[in-house]
Design goal:
The protein is an alpha/beta fold. Strand 5, helix 3 and strand 6 form a beta-alpha-beta unit. The protein has a nine-stranded mixed beta sheet, sandwiched between helices. It is built from 15 helices and 17 strands. The structure holds iron/sulfur cluster. The site of iron/sulfur cluster (SF4) has 10 residues, from loops.
Length: 400
C-alpha cells in the first residue's frame, strides 16, 4: 500500500477519561472493568486528576478542550462531587472551549433527580444512557441492573435536569431473542424522544461469558443476515423519525451528533486518562511526555503516537503514584497506518472520506460504477450496498 503524505496531528481538543467501576460484569463485556471498588473511588479520582496534570504539562501549551468524555465502566457510580473534581482539573489545566461538549456515561439505575442536577452543575452537557433494551427479559439476560421502566424514567429525569443532550444505546443481535424484541425497544425509545441513539450489534467477544456460552452451544447468536435486517430496520425507522444516520451505528437529531466521537472517526488526536484508556497524540507531545523513555525513539516518519494505560486498577494507581503517568506502552503510527485508519473510519461516516490521491479518486469512481460509493466534491461515501461491504470497499480504496 502506498501511503499519501498526511500531516501530523494538531494538539488534541478531546479528552477521554476512563472510570472502570461497575456493580458487576455483564456477560458480554470485555471492557477494562473493575467490579465493586467503592473503597477506591477517591484514590482513583485523585490519580486521574494527577494524570491530567501530567498530560497538560506535556501539551505546552494545551489547546482548550472541545469535548470531554467520561466513559467506562460506569462513571455514574462515582459520587457527583468526584465527577466535578475531574472536570475542574480538566478545566483548570487544559481549559474548556465555549460550548464544549461534556459527556457522562450513565447506567439508568444510577440516575436520580439529585444526581442529574449535580451533574449539570458540574458541567455535564450530555449523558449517554446504557439503555440496551426496553425488554425486561433481555435486560436480565444481559445481566443489567435496571429495568425498562427505570430506563425511561432516567430519560425523563435527565430532561427535567435540563441536560442539553441525552443519548441512548440499544443492542440488537441478542441470542435467542426474536427480531420483535429489538424493534419494540427501538419504537418505545423513539417515543421517549432522546436526542441521539446508538444501535450496536451484540458480538460475543472472546474471553466473555457470552462467548463461552456460544462456544459451548448453550446459546446461538442470530444469523448475520438477520442482524443486517435489524440494522436496516433501525436506520429506516430512525430516519423516518427525524434522526439522521451520521455514522454506521449512530443517529442524531440535527446538531446532536457526538462531537467527541466525531473527533475519533475523523482521525483527530485525543488525550486519555484512567486505567486502560488509549490516547492518540502528536509526536512532539508524546516526546515531551515520555522524556528519555523509548517514545523518543519514534522515527521521523511517524505521524502520531498511540499510547495506552495500564488496564488493571491497582497497576494503574501504582504507575501514577510513581511517575504521574498511567502509560503502559506506546507505538508510532506511521503514514500507512494513519491512512488506513483515516479511510476505515471516514467511510463509516455519512460525510464520507476525502480522496487524497489521483489513484484513490480513480478507484472511488470504479467503486461508484459498481454501486458501492457515491463520489462528489473530492469525497467518497458508501451507498447502502457499500456499507454492507464496508471492509472490502475500504481495502479496495486503500490498495489504490
Ligand atoms: S455496565 Fe457496561 S462497562 Fe460495566 S460490565 Fe456492563 S457492559 Fe461492561
Amino acid at each position: 500500500m502506498r501511503a499519501p503524505s498526511a500531516p501530523g496531528l494538531e494538539v488534541p481538543q478531546a479528552l477521554y477519561v476512563h472510570i472502570p467501576f461497575c456493580q458487576r460484569r455483564c456477560p458480554y463485556c470485555d471492557f477494562a472493568v473493575h467490579v465493586g471498588g467503592v473503597a477506591r473511588f477517591h484514590e482513583y479520582v485523585a490519580a486521574v486528576r494527577a494524570e491530567l496534570r501530567w498530560l497538560a504539562a506535556g501539551a505546552a501549551p494545551p489547546a482548550p478542550l472541545d469535548s470531554v468524555y467520561l466513559g467506562g465502566g460506569t462513571p455514574s457510580r462515582l459520587p457527583a462531587r468526584l465527577i466535578a473534581g475531574i472536570l475542574s482539573t480538566a478545566r483548570a489545566r487544559f481549559g474548556l472551549a465555549p460550548g464544549a461538549e461534556v459527556t457522562l456515561e450513565a447506567n439508568p439505575s444510577d440516575v436520580t433527580r439529585r444526581r442529574a442536577a449535580a451533574w449539570a452543575t458540574a458541567g455535564v452537557t450530555r449523558v449517554s444512557l446504557g439503555v440496551q433494551s426496553l425488554d425486561d427479559d433481555v435486560l436480565r439476560q444481559l445481566g443489567r441492573s435496571h429495568t425498562a421502566a427505570q430506563a425511561l424514567a432516567a430519560l425523563r429525569v435527565l430532561r427535567q435536569a435540563a441536560i442539553p443532550g441525552v443519548s441512548c444505546d440499544l443492542l440488537y443481535g441478542i441470542p435467542g431473542r426474536p427480531a420483535g424484541s429489538f424493534q419494540a425497544s427501538l419504537a418505545g425509545l423513539i417515543e421517549a424522544e432522546p436526542d441521539h441513539v446508538s444501535c450496536y450489534e451484540l458480538t460475543p467477544e472472546r474471553g466473555t461469558r457470552l462467548h463461552r456460552q456460544v462456544m459451548d452451544g448453550l446459546v446461538r447468536p442470530p444469523h448475520p443476515v438477520a442482524n443486517l435486517a435489524q440494522h436496516w430496520w433501525a436506520v429506516e425507522r430512525l430516519e423516518a423519525s427525524g434522526y439522521h444516520q451520521y455514522e454506521v451505528s449512530n443517529f442524531a437529531r440535527p446538531g446532536q451528533e457526538s462531537r467527541h466521537n466525531l473527533q475519533y472517526w475523523r482521525g483527530a488526536g485525543y488525550w486519555a486518562a484512567g486505567s486502560g484508556a488509549h490516547g492518540h497524540l502528536p509526536v512532539a507531545v508524546a516526546r515531551r511526555l515520555a522524556g528519555d523513555a523509548p517514545a523518543t525513539g519514534v522515527g521521523l516518519g511517524a505521524r502520531a503516537v498511540r499510547c495506552w494505560n495500564h488496564r488493571g486498577t491497582a497497576r494503574y494507581l501504582r504507575a501514577v503514584a510513581e511517575t504521574g503517568s498511567g502509560w503502559a506502552g506506546w507505538e508510532a503510527v506511521d503514514a500507512g497506518q494513519a491512512e488506513l485508519e483515516r479511510v476505515a473510519c471516514g467511510l463509516r461516516l455519512r460525510e464520507g472520506v476525502r480522496l487524497r490521491t489521483p489513484a484513490q479518486r480513480r478507484m472511488a469512481r470504479q467503486l461508484s460504477r459498481h454501486g458501492l460509493l457515491e463520489v462528489a466534491a473530492g469525497r467518497a461515501r458508501t451507498t447502502r450496498r457499500g456499507e454492507e461491504l464496508l471492509e472490502a470497499v475500504t481495502l479496495r480504496l486503500l490498495a489504490a
